[in-house]
Write a structure and sequence with these properties.
The protein has helices at residues 2-13, 18-34, 36-46, 127-136, 139-142, 162-173, 198-219, 236-248, 281-294, 308-317, 326-331, 335-351; strands at 54-56, 59-61, 65-67, 88-94, 107-110, 115-118, 147-151, 179-183, 226-230, 253-256, 274-277, 299-302, 321-324. It is α/β, with parallel strands linked by helices. The structure holds flavin mononucleotide (FMN).
Length: 352
């Protein structure tokens, strides 16, 4: 399967514009999502279940490999992803207002380096439409893996009013989320990263926690865990501040990391936007290791995980789950299954 993807499918795909290919892939996955018996058969075959599910922030995960935010921005294909082996899916980033994002071209691939630069700026259908889509999906009730919802700020909302924007999305989507990831680290939305700073993050996350408590009290619903997604470009001091907020407010954990604004020396990468994929692994791993050394809060590691060794290094650093995006594009549709399987055997071998 990998051979077919690498030698036949990928060369054809990679000759096209990245977003055209993305839309084609989404169409294909929507078809798979819609054919329940095929989906169920593929899930049976591809969804590797660890001997013991991972439990983190009150949610159970059948395996440790998730799809990172950005691939399924509009909740169109999440239900097909367990059939490819993913043990959780994070949709979004979803914003209060629907928005077109930055002008195209805004995704650039570098296959030799297995790197991607994106300058998307949260194109999405908006929280209301996405909530409606999720409410109509019967798969909501039968889903096999946790669904994370990544929320961000709309471009037209001033940074001072960010909390209201996030709370709107929270209120629309809370019924469907096993957890929320609060994205304060995308480099493609002006000023968004300011929300990572101590006072701003505390205010934002307190407001979200209050909204969650209000919903729990008013409607008798269970509270939803919040994770904060951070950039790999923060200093250790800034990471300390994030950890303090996460601990003080009793948040679910941290997703580390988003894309980086820095570039390797002498690289020819697009200079706008955020870099993902293989070249950011060391940086992301360093951030994950630092966080795990300084808190017991769960960490989902993401950034440049392109093989089993790298995934294992993230777990050795203390992560409880990992997510992938770029390697899904470069290695093919069943890469999550492969990773989950090899990690399963790796952990099995340890215990035997
Ligand atoms: C094209 C593209 C779009 C992305 N969009 C989002 C997004 O909307 N929200 C988000 O939190 N992260 C987004 N990301 C970042 C990924 O979720 C992930 O954090 C990052 O790519 C590092 O993982 P990777 O090296 O496995 O790709 C995007 C990444 C790419 C490549």
């Amino acid at each position: 399967m990998d051979f077919i993807y690498e030698k036949l499918v990928r060369p054809v795909f990679f000759r096209q514009d990245p977003e055209t290919v993305h839309h084609l892939a989404v169409k294909g996955l929507q078809c798979l999502g819609a054919i329940a018996p095929l989906r169920a058969a593929m899930e049976k075959f591809n969804l590797v279940r660890d001997e013991k599910p991972t439990e983190a922030f009150g949610v159970k995960f059948p395996n440790k490999i998730g799809l990172a935010a950005g691939f399924d921005k509009d909740a169109l294909v999440w239900r097909a992803m367990p059939a490819l082996g993913f043990g959780h899916v994070e949709i979004g980033t979803v914003t209060c207002h629907d928005q077109a994002g930055n002008p195209k071209p805004r995704i650039f691939r570098y296959p030799k380096d297995e790197a991607i630069v994106n300058f998307c700026g949260f194109p999405n259908d908006g929280a209301e439409t996405i909530a409606e889509r999720l409410s109509k999906s019967r798969a909501q009730k039968t889903k096999k893996v946790p669904l994370g919802i990544n929320i961000g700020k709309s471009k037209i909302t001033p940074i001072e009013d960010a909390a209201q924007d996030y709370i709107f999305s929270y209120n629309k989507l809370a019924d469907f989320a096993d957890y929320f990831t609060v994205n304060v680290s995308c480099p493609n939305l002006p000023e968004l990263r300011k929300l990572q700073s101590k006072g701003d993050l505390e205010r934002l996350m307190s407001a979200l926690k209050d909204a969650d408590a209000e919903r729990a009290e008013k409607f008798g619903k269970a509270k939803v865990p919040f994770l904060v997604k951070i950039a790999p470009d923060l200093t250790f001091r800034e990471i300390d501040d994030v950890i303090e907020t996460v601990e003080n407010l009793g948040l679910g954990g941290i997703v580390a990391t988003n894309t980086t604004t820095s570039r390797p020396e002498k690289s020819a990468y697009e200079t706008r936007g955020g870099l993902s994929g293989s070249p950011i692994f060391d940086k992301s791993r360093e951030v994950v290791a630092y966080i795990c050394k300084n808190t017991k809060k769960p960490v989902i590691a993401v950034g440049g995980i392109s093989d089993t060794e790298r995934a294992a290094k993230m777990f050795d650093a203390g992560a409880c789950l990992v997510q992938i995006y770029s390697s899904f594009i470069f290695k093919g549709p069943f890469f999550a299954k492969e990773l989950a399987k090899s990690l399963y055997w790796r952990s099995g071998a340890k215990w035997l």
